[in-house]
Amino acid sequence: MSKPFKQLRGRAIILDVPQKKESGLQLTAKDEDLIMQEAMKLWTALNVYAIGDKVEEVAEGDKVYVRTSALEHSEKIDINGEIKLLATESDVVLIW
After folding, report:
1. Which residues pair with 63 in a beta bridge?
2. In this prediction, what percent of the chain has a pLDDT beyond 90?
3. Does residue 22 belong to any structural domain of this protein?
4. Domain presence at residue 68
5. Is residue 23 part of a domain?
6. Residue ranges making up the domain that contains 47
7. What is the largest CA-CA distance in the chain?
8. Is residue 39 pLDDT above 90, yes or no?
9. Distance of alpha carbon 48 from alpha carbon 65, whole angstroms
């Protein structure tokens, strides 16, 4: 699948964020972040969207478990209107 960027560098990996149920409530950005932090504790198999050019043990499409503490500190990236998480290969604990 073609990505909307030229290259992901180093040992970085981009993870898909599981889709949440839409709500009719208007939430502030701060509230959205709090809800996402709570949801991260339940994410056990995240899909790998893209891998950096130096990643050796994880492939695109793999399902991975990433430590919750690493997810809480990961950067959020908007790619084509979808929020993705930026982590590193060393954050991955399990590969399914």
Report:
1. 47
2. 59
3. no
4. yes
5. no
6. 12-17+28-95
7. 42
8. no
9. 10
**Which tokens is 68 given?**
């919750």
**Domain annotation covers residue 61:** yes
Residue 35 pLDDT greater than 90, yes or no: no
CB 91 within 8 A of CB 66: yes
Domain count of the fold of the chain:
1
Which residue matches tokens 């909307």?
A: 4
CA separation for the pair 37, 31 (Å, rounded): 10
Per-residue model confidence as pLDDT tens digits over 10-24: 999 999 998 766 667
Q: What is the 3-state secondary structure (H, E, C) of the chain?
A: CCCCCCCCCCCEEEEECCCCCCCCCCCCHHHHHHHHHHHHCCCCCEEEEEECCCCCCCCCCCEEEECHHHHHCCEEEEECCEEEEEEEHHHEEEEC
